[in-house]
Amino acid sequence: MAFLPTNDAVTLARARSDFVRVMRAMLICGRAEQQPPSLAFIKSGGERLQLATRAAVGGGSLADAEAVGAYRQVSLAWLQSLRSASAFDAILPDMRSAPMFQRFAISTTAIIGDEIDEGRGIGVKQLTLAPDQLRPKKCAAICVITNELARMSDAESLIDAELRAAVAIGTDRVFLNAAIAATTPIASTGTAQDIDAMLGAVPITPQSRLHWVFSPEAIRALATERNNGMLVWPDADVVNGGRLYGIPVSISDQLPADTALLVDAAQIAANQGEVDVSVSGQAAVEMVDESAQDVLAPVGASSIVSLFQANQTGIKAVRTFGFTVLRSAGIASVAGIAWATPPEPDEPVTQQVAAAQAAPAHHARTHREHP
User: Fold this and answer.
1) 143 band by pLDDT with thresholds 50, 70 and 90
2) What span, in angstroms and rounded, lies between the C-alpha atoms of 78 and 56?
């Protein structure tokens, strides 16, 4: 069954909302004694919610095409909503869309056409190719809530916010680690020249689609950098994900502190992938205190909790997506950013230091806050 859109933004918002309702319906259905109220909730959600929550495979049949299509429609809308939370998804529309397991013949040498003079032959250059393949990658998140909370209407916004943040973090962790590994980081000079250095390191072509990615520490330093008391970037609304040099800016806390990236999305092949959601009220989960979590920590640092005994239900979201960097030259990074306000040109650094040492402690603090 087709659902004709009336407005793209409205249709996307409705589909995303339907997917959140699907997740809540699955949570409510997690226990047998909750079947009657859960069925009433599903029926009240409209035809698409009923289709999306229907079993995709029924008795005596191979598949329910309508159920699969409805679930895919709402789940993809939820993935598209990650563009405001994930750097990967923000850049994704400008990447080269490709199916999973597609093979690429990546050219490692650029072939440039030359002007031909009359009576001279055409220069020949050998093409060097490096094979690559778009392989799927996965990230997962599990959210455990009480069954009482699942029945509350406020649970939808809570589940949506927590799972969106968790899936976005997992996606960016995989993508940004691979992006940094494809670069040789540029050492920071401590000035805004780092921005120009990244621009100079990435070859720009008419097909380029550039994107900045900053860590929170780097974006904070960039937004407050001053020269002669004036902001270096007064027109760049970078904190709110604006533009710098006309290039979109994304912020991700999955970048190492004081790190920035410039990505040419046209040099990356990607697949948005899918998200699969499952629930369980019978599982035993290992609850870990993330503040003290360590790969080498003993098993005793965590505890096993029975969701059935605790009257809780767990919902798991697994995202399968893919990307491959076609040319490493399409990504540049700066590490160790230490952008700071330089001293006034008529006051050498040595005079500033001497004045700060000679002044009382409270005066020195005021001097640093108001250069």
Assistant:
1) confident
2) 19
In this structure, the chain runs to a length of 371
Q: What is the mean pLDDT of residues 240-249?
A: 83
Domain residue ranges of the chain, discontinuous segments joined by +? 1-84, 85-106+125-366
| Residue 130 pLDDT > 70 | no
Q: What residues have CB less than 8 Å from 350, skipping those under 6 apart?
A: none
Q: What is the largest CA-CA distance in the chain?
A: 88
Of 325, 33, 371, residue with least CA distance to 179: 325
Topology (CATH level 3) of domain 85-106+125-366: phage-related protein like fold (3.90.1690)
Cβ proximity of 329 and 267 under 8 Å = yes
Q: How confident is the model at residue 340 (pLDDT cuts 50, 70, 90)?
A: low
User: In 149-220, where do the E strands start and end?
Assistant: 186-187, 210-214
pLDDT value at 263 more than 50? yes
Predicted TM-score of the model (pTM)? 0.72
- The first and second tokens of residue 214, run together, are 């900053």
Q: At what angle do helices 155-181 and 8-28 cross, to 10 degrees?
A: 110
Give the C-alpha separation, 332 to 279, whole Å.
Answer: 41
Residue 87's pLDDT band (cuts 50, 70, 90)? very high
Measure the CA–CA gap between 130 and 132, rounded to whole angstroms: 7
Query: How much helix, strand and coil, in percent to the nearest 5, is found in the chain?
Result: 40, 25, 35
The DSSP element (H or E) to which 145 belongs, if any, is: strand 136-146
Burial of 255 (0-12, 13-18, 19+ CB in 10 A): buried
Between CA 94 and CA 87 the distance in angstroms is 12
SS3 185: coil
**Residue 351 and residue 344: Cα distance in Å, rounded?**
11
Phi and psi torsions of 175, nearest 5°: -70, -50
Annotate 339-356 with b (16+ C-beta within 10 A) or e (fewer): bebeeeeeeeeeeeeeee
Per-residue pLDDT tens over the stretch 272-320: 999 988 888 888 887 765 544 444 445 455 578 888 888 888 888 999 9
Q: What average pLDDT score do residues 13-18 get? A: 79
